[in-house]
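Predict fold of MHS family MFS transporter; 446 aa.
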Amino acid sequence: MNENPEHRPGPAAAARSRVAMATLAGTTLEWYDFFLYGTAAALIFNKQFFPSLSPSVGTLAAFSTFAVGFIARPLGGLVFGHFGDRIGRKATLVVSLVMMGVGSTLIGLIPNYDSIGFWAPVLLVAMRIVQGIGLGGEGAGATLMSMEHAPEGKKNLYAGFPQMGTPAGLVLANAIFLTTNAVLSDAAFESWGWRIPFLLSFVLVAIGLVIRLRVTESPSFAGILEKGDVVRFPLKESLKVGFPRLSLTLLAVVANSAVAYAFMVFTLSYGTQHLGYDKQFLVLSVTAAAVLWFATIPVWTTVADRYGRRTMFIAGSAAILLWCIAFFPLLNTENSALAVIAFLGMGLIIPVTHCVQGSIIADTFPARVRYSGSSLILQTAAILGGGLAPMISTALLNATGSSVGVTWYLVVICSISLAGAIALFRLVPSSSRGPELSAAAERVRV
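Predicted 3D structure, encoded as tokens:
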């Protein structure tokens, strides 16, 4: 029997730590760029790129360009996943970081609608596609890179480091956005100051590249190369896992993305335009929630490594559903203290499922096709969940005039994910403590 590349001796502790920090730094910078766009779409882009539309329709148009990035993510996931399974994780992650940095920097240079008319939103969409392709290559790859370097018994913890980049990127984006807004007048910020955070992407990505170029290749992929076990068409091979397991994995993770983007992006426009909250208050509230999200990920991943992630993930899925019922009623009180509680609740609950979803998805596939298969699931969930959430929420709000429709939308999608998670963990007896499947489960899925 061939040696399983997952059982190869692990790298030195210093090298493992460097990889974990490099994946955290890289994903933080990628998500900084991606979330910066979301904040700008909620607060700025309707005036800069869609000035002829009413505020609500302009916001819907801006959120549509936000969704374009998610539609492009599967393309990035498939392309980078293919090459990540064929030539290695490290090289593909370097390229994805460069793409995101270039796309974000160029957004900061696009003239507005008043300057070049129709071409302004066209160029905005084009750069959003570049962003989406870059992030599509990053999401699964960074998780695999860190997880495949992990020591025994800490697979979830190491897989959680790249997940920490999501809230860290949000905090960084909002902090720079708020700082720029604070030092400039409102008129100056809305005219040209909003471009500064995008232009800073060039500097941040350069720093990220220095860190990322120092890491070693994944031991799992190095073992695959040594054995000559590289698959010619990894995506096709990954589908042999079977439709039931693929579809249930997708359903299990889709709600986390939808809820996260509804509370991080949609609430910025909803709170300012319909409830009268101050823009900076909302951004600060989302940022505070993201800090809590970031801080609790190591706690939850340690719990998953010690006690198993199945029960934790299902309980987290149920908690998200319940908090979605309470979230908008708390926000609608227009009471600042209750609004902060609503946001902090999201920051506490979302990481319970978010921190282990990467390792759960990776657990579905053997190492030789793991990048391609994980990218397929992760990016499809991102479209169905996160990419459409702000746009669907805005459309429901415009159609009904209240947030009740938005609440029901989130409750339904959370219920689907909860049912999917319960069914997934009953499907095959896969290990709940790491990316290794038992021999019986391996036979079932391959």
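Confidence is low (pLDDT under 50) at residues 1-11, 429-446.
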